[in-house]
């Protein structure tokens, strides 16, 4: 064998080894269900050669339990701001290497400023999507139950027992999320939605218990199809989920008309953040994934499918008109000013919240 042949063989082996390594690169993503355009994942793999292993969850509590236990194997996770804040304090995330994220320049300063409440300096996360928690309803069924003047723009629709009792027959779902429902009840009672006062949390619990007999189911995301199919008439849910239900019903033209309302008394504004666990096995790939997500065309593609607003200002020129022009997704400034945010409960208060919510769900 000549030296040239030997060197050629070494070069080929080296190239093959490099290709194998490129193929072996992986990023493990753990996101909410129904929350991305799958072509985004395919495009990322095509461009980078990095395989995406994509798993989904349906509640912050499920994600938090895994994060606090450690060793999840995930490289990118998507907690909501209130949960992110206490998870940062618990040391479960790796600080972002911002020099590896040139597309940070595309992000929306107004949203970053609000997120600082949970992630000072935006050191550990980027905003993926944001929205509000309000009321999704079947226009015809609610009118049939409550009349033409049904208070669809108010929490009265679901927090007044005399109203929700009339909606019971057509089906009412409520988010299985105490961090969403207790602040909504506090706000409706004229109390601080971010209250940590145990006596006020108990009052919120009593309000929720008063309407509990009319709640068919507590849920995380299955209300999307239930609304779209006409199986229920009201769901307290996340803005984008309800709008997905609205559009699914319109697509199949099944005679179901769904609308979303941000109640006039105010509603919770939330932020879903992408972060990298401290024990992530593929941090370099995680940063590549985050930077890809922050490309304006990529983030717009995700919003155009899931019907949620995103924290990427540069993406707005790529958004479909039925997304950027929909006030339920991108509310006007006056509506945004009426949205409230909350902060994490201290451990002792969290136990009270958990106990209160268990009582609400069990009706006891």
Automatic annotation (TrEMBL):
Stated name of the protein: Putrescine-binding periplasmic protein
Keyword Signal recorded: yes
Pfam families: SBP_bac_8 (PF13416)
Family: Belongs to the bacterial solute-binding protein PotD/PotF family.
Subcellular location(s) per record: Periplasm
SUPFAM superfamilies named among the record's database cross-references: Periplasmic binding protein-like II
Gene3D superfamilies xref list: Periplasmic binding protein-like II
Task performed by this protein: Required for the activity of the bacterial periplasmic transport system of putrescine.
The organism of origin for this protein: Roseibium porphyridii
Coiled coil location: none
Signal peptide span: 1-22
Taxonomic superkingdom: Bacteria
InterPro entries recorded: SBP, Sperm_putr-bd
Keyword line: Periplasm, Signal, Transport
Taxonomic lineage: Bacteria, Pseudomonadati, Pseudomonadota, Alphaproteobacteria, Hyphomicrobiales
